[in-house]
Structure formats: structure tokens, C-alpha cells
Specification:
alpha+beta, five-stranded antiparallel sheet, four-stranded antiparallel sheet, about 45% helix, about 20% strand
Length: about 280
């Protein structure tokens, strides 16, 4: 029995039996420490990235917000500046895009200092701009003719814009303040003749204190030509003069020499002797 107990105690106290457990469990206890370290690093790295991305979008938003505010402020200031050019109610029916064309022209040529401006006289304002198809360019958009007044208050500048705001025609009227109105294609006008003919395209009538002209676009020459427009009194006067010349004979015809043949020979001999 004693021998048996000694064997049992020997088996229980045998250190070789516990060695495998230590060799198996020891690596298990070290692996979680490495995983947690890498996890911390990954979380910190992702946090930095998210922080950078958030900061980028925040500053980008702030910059866009500032630009938007500046643009809104600029747009408001520009709108007020444009509206100041059109100082009377007679300009209210000019569309906004054409208003910008006029403003851009004044701004580009440094006329916003008052060198040229739109008249502030209500009764005259309705006669210093006109819309129409002045170049027959086969589109539905109108051209615009505008008379700007000089700060000497006695001279003008006529400008014609197309529907894109491009300048088509500019002419100065020194010491004149004309008025304008538009006419359509087919309207009867004078074109280098005293007979009325249909206008080949729409155009503009420019009326000064003493004269009236029609501005008509020449498609072949690619330019505007000016044609004097006769008044009814002038046509009547010319017709009366024509009737008078018809009754009196052609004033341009050579006079008839009714000197007798004998007299002519005497005159000729005198002329020959004098020579």
C-alpha cells in the first residue's frame, strides 16, 4: 500500500505534467496586448484624418459663405448703380439685360462720371431709345438704339446695340439733341430719291430741330447708311418747281439762236477781225 501511495504522490507532483500547460497558455496571454496597441494607433490615425477632413470642409464652407456674401453685396451695389442710370419712370420698360448693356457701355468708356448720361427729362426720355430689328439678323431678339446726352447739355451720342450687347453703330451729334423712333421693314422712306420706297429692313428715324434722317443697315456693305427724309413742304415745293419748269421749258436746254443768217455772218466777221 505504501508503495502505491508513493506512486500516486509521485504522479501528482510530477512537474513534467504542468509544463505543457504553461507553454500553451503563455503566448495566449501576450497576443491581446499587441492587438490593442495597433487598435489604438488605428483609432488615433482615423481621428486625425477625420479632424483634417472636418477642418477642410469647415474652412471651405466659411470661404464660400464669405464669397457668397461679397457677391451678393457686389450684386446689390451693381444693381443700385445700374438703376441710378435710369432715373425716370419712362425707362421702366427697358429689360434688365438691355439696362446692363447700357451700363457696361458707360462703365467701359469711363462715362459714369457724368460725361454722358440718359436724359433726366421725363418728356424727352421716351424719345431717346427705341427697339427694333435694325439688322434683319433673323432672330427674335430686338436691337436697341440709345441717345446719350453730353454733359454740355447740347450734344448727343447715338449708340445701337444688338441683343448681345455688342455695339453696332456710334455717331456723335455736336450741338444737337435729336430724338429717335424706330420703323419696321417695308415702311415707306426716302432713299436718295424724292419718291417713297419700302424700307429693306427696320431702321431708325433721327430727328433734329431742322432735319430728319433714316438710318438703314446695308447688308452688303455691312454698315448703316443715313438717308435724308424730305418734309411734306419740301416735296410740295419741289413738285411746284417741277411744274413751273415744265411750263417754262427746260432751263437746262441751250438757248435757241434766232439771229438771221445775214446777221450771223456779220457777227462772225466782226469776231474774226477782232481776233
Amino acid at each position: 500500500m505504501e508503495n502505491q501511495e508513493q506512486k500516486d504522490s509521485t504522479v501528482q507532483k510530477d512537474p513534467n505534467l504542468s509544463q505543457p500547460e504553461a507553454s500553451i497558455t503563455q503566448p495566449y496571454n501576450q497576443q491581446p496586448k499587441k492587438s490593442k496597441t495597433w487598435l489604438y494607433i488605428l483609432v488615433v490615425f482615423l481621428g486625425i484624418i477625420l479632424l483634417c477632413v472636418g477642418a477642410y470642409f469647415f474652412f471651405d464652407y466659411k470661404i464660400k459663405e464669405k464669397n457668397l456674401q461679397e457677391n451678393e453685396q457686389y450684386s446689390e451695389e451693381r444693381a443700385n448703380a445700374i438703376n441710378n442710370v435710369f432715373s425716370v419712370a419712362q425707362y421702366d420698360n427697358i429689360p434688365q439685360n438691355y439696362r446692363e448693356f447700357i451700363y457696361n457701355f458707360l462703365e467701359y468708356n469711363n462715362f459714369l462720371d457724368g460725361t454722358y448720361f440718359l436724359t433726366k427729362i421725363s418728356d424727352r426720355a421716351k424719345s431717346v431709345y427705341a427697339f427694333g430689328d435694325f439688322t434683319s439678323d433673323d432672330n427674335d431678339e430686338d436691337d436697341l438704339a440709345v441717345l446719350f446726352e453730353n454733359n454740355d447739355y447740347k450734344s448727343s451720342k447715338l449708340v445701337i446695340f444688338n441683343h448681345k450687347g455688342e455695339g453696332l453703330y456710334i455717331n456723335d451729334y455736336n450741338n444737337e439733341l435729336p430724338v429717335i423712333n424706330a420703323f419696321k421693314v417695308g415702311s415707306k422712306i426716302y432713299m436718295n430719291d424724292t419718291k417713297l420706297v419700302p424700307a429693306p429692313c427696320g431702321g431708325i428715324i433721327v430727328k433734329t430741330d431742322y432735319n430728319k434722317y433714316a438710318l438703314v443697315y446695308d447688308k452688303k456693305a455691312k454698315k448703316f447708311n443715313s438717308y435724308y427724309q424730305y418734309s411734306d413742304e419740301e416735296i410740295k415745293s419741289m413738285n411746284e418747281e417741277g411744274s413751273y419748269y415744265e411750263e417754262e421749258g427746260d432751263p437746262g436746254a441751250e438757248p435757241i439762236d434766232d439771229t438771221p443768217e445775214e446777221g450771223r455772218s456779220i457777227i462772225n466777221s466782226i469776231n474774226e477781225d477782232s481776233n
